[in-house]
Specification:
By secondary structure, this protein is α+β, with helices and mostly antiparallel strands. The chain contains 14 helices and 13 strands. The protein has 3 domains: 84 residues, Resuscitation-promoting factor rpfb fold (Single Sheet); 78 residues, SH3 type barrels (Roll), CATH 2.30.30; 160 residues, Lysozyme (Orthogonal Bundle), CATH 1.10.530. Helix 13 crosses helix 14.
Length: 400
C-alpha cells in the first residue's frame, strides 16, 4: 500500500502523544498511591519508627548537669545521714522529786540526702538540700521527771514496802469519813501503789485502799523498823488455825529469847534445849514453837514425873490405862524432842508420801489437817487439848 507523506507525519505524531499519556497516568497513580491510598502496614511501620526513636533517647541526668555547671567551690553530695531524736519531759507524781525515768527510748533516724554544698577555704559555708528521703523514722525520747516530795523524803518508789509506826485504818477513799476496809496493825508493812502527801494508796495483803501518811515510815527513815516488822509479822500470823506443818520462821536467837527467863521453867529444861527445838523444825518440817508448847503443857514446864525420870516431856506413849509404865523412856531431852517432832510431822501433819527430808517420808497415818484442832483429833483424848497448847504458843510468840 502506498502511503503519502502527510499520512506518515500523522501516524508519528499520534505515537508520541500516546507515550506522553502513559507517563502522565503513571505519575498520577504513583502520587495518589503515596498520599491517598497508604496501607495500614505503612502507618504501623511509621508509628514503630517514631516509638523506637523516642525510647532510645537518653534521660537527662539532672544531678550530673548541675555538677557540670557548678562553680569549682561547690560540690554535690549524695549520702546517708543520721537524724538526732528530740527529748521530751513529762511530770510524774509517782516518782521521787527530780528523779528521772525513761518512758520511751529515743531512736536515731536515717535519711538519704542529695545536697549542694558551697566551700570557702576548704570550709563548708552553705548547703542546699536538693532531695531528702526517709530511710528510718526518728523516735522521740520521753522522760518522766518526778515531782513527789513524799517519795523523795522517805527514799521509796512505787511498789516498795513501807511500815506503820502505829495501827491505822485502811480506807476506801482519801477521806477520814470513807468506809474502813480493815485495820493495819502496828509495824506491819504495806506496798505503796500511789504517792501523795496527806494520803497514799497502798496494798495490804490482798486489799487496796488509802492510808494517812501520819504514821508511815520507811527503812531509810527508821532503820530498826525492818526487825520490828519481822516480829510483828510473826505475831500477826499466830492463830488457832495456823499451819503447823512448816517452820515457824523464828531464828535460833528468837528460840533462845522465848524459851529463856521463864519463871515456871524451874529446872531450865526448855531454856537449855532451845537449840534442839529450833533444829527439830529445820529437820522435820514442823513448827518448833508448837513442839515446845506441847512439851510445856504435857510436862508442866518439865516438872512432871515422866519429865524428871524418863526425860519424856510429851507424855509420849503414855496410854491412859497405865501412863507412867507405858510412856517411852528417852535418853535425854534432845532425843525426846527429835522423836516427838518426827512423829508429829510424819504421822499427823503431812500426807502419805510427803518427803520430810533426804531420808524420811511421811506415812500420814493420823493425818487430819495441819492445825492444832486437826492434830487434837488423834493425838489427845482431851478435846480442849488444842486450846491449852495454843495458849502456850501465844505466850511464847508474845515474848519476841
Amino acid at each position: 500500500m502506498k502511503r503519502t507523506d502527510e499520512g506518515t507525519i500523522v501516524i508519528k505524531f499520534s505515537v508520541v502523544w500516546f507515550f506522553v499519556g502513559i507517563v502522565i497516568i503513571g505519575l498520577l497513580i504513583s502520587f495518589f498511591k503515596s498520599n491517598i491510598f497508604a496501607t495500614d502496614d505503612d502507618n504501623k511501620e511509621q508509628s514503630e519508627t517514631v516509638v523506637a526513636f523516642e525510647e532510645n533517647q537518653k534521660a537527662v541526668d539532672v544531678i550530673q548537669v548541675m555538677l557540670t555547671n557548678t562553680d569549682s567551690n561547690k560540690k554535690m553530695v549524695n549520702e546517708q545521714r543520721d537524724v538526732a531524736f528530740e527529748t521530751q519531759y513529762e511530770d510524774n507524781p509517782n516518782l521521787p522529786k527530780d528523779e528521772e525515768q525513761v518512758k520511751q527510748e529515743g531512736k536515731i533516724g536515717k535519711v538519704q540526702v542529695t545536697a549542694l554544698q558551697e566551700y570557702q577555704n576548704d570550709q563548708m559555708i552553705n548547703e542546699e538540700i536538693i532531695e531528702s528521703t526517709t530511710l528510718e523514722e526518728v523516735v522521740t525520747e520521753i522522760i518522766y521527771r518526778g515531782t513527789s516530795d513524799f517519795l523523795k523524803r522517805f527514799n521509796v518508789h512505787i511498789d516498795d514496802e513501807m511500815y506503820l509506826l502505829e495501827a491505822e485504818d485502811l480506807k476506801e477513799d482519801k477521806t477520814d469519813e470513807s468506809p474502813t476496809i480493815c485495820q493495819v496493825p502496828r509495824h506491819l508493812n504495806v506496798t505503796i501503789k500511789e504517792a501523795g502527801e496527806e494520803w497514799i494508796k497502798v496494798k495490804y495483803n490482798d486489799k487496796e485502799g488509802y492510808l494517812k501518811t501520819t504514821y508511815i515510815t520507811s527503812e531509810t527513815v527508821t532503820p530498826l523498823i525492818k526487825e520490828l516488822n519481822r516480829i510483828a509479822t510473826l505475831k500477826n500470823n499466830v492463830n488457832i488455825d495456823m499451819d503447823l506443818s512448816q517452820p515457824s520462821g523464828l531464828t535460833l536467837s528468837d528460840f533462845k529469847t522465848v524459851l529463856s527467863g521463864n519463871l515456871s521453867d524451874r529446872n531450865k529444861i526448855f531454856e537449855q534445849n532451845a537449840e534442839a527445838f529450833y533444829n527439830a523444825e529445820q529437820k522435820y518440817k514442823i513448827n518448833g514453837i508448837f513442839v515446845a508448847a506441847i512439851g510445856i503443857h504435857e510436862s508442866a514446864w518439865g516438872t512432871s514425873r515422866l519429865a524428871m525420870e524418863k526425860s519424856n516431856l510429851f507424855g509420849y506413849n503414855a496410854n491412859d490405862r497405865d501412863p507412867y509404865n507405858m510412856a517411852t523412856t528417852f535418853d535425854g531431852y534432845e532425843n525426846a524432842i527429835y522423836t516427838v517432832a518426827e512423829a508429829l510431822s510424819t504421822k499427823y501433819l503431812h500426807t502419805s508420801g510427803t518427803l520430810i527430808n533426804d531420808t524420811i517420808v511421811a506415812s500420814g497415818a493420823y493425818y487430819n489437817g495441819t492445825t492444832l484442832r486437826s492434830v487434837n483429833i488423834r493425838y489427845a483424848s482431851d478435846e480442849a487439848w488444842a486450846d491449852k497448847v495454843f495458849s502456850y504458843i501465844q505466850y511464847l510468840y508474845n515474848k519476841l
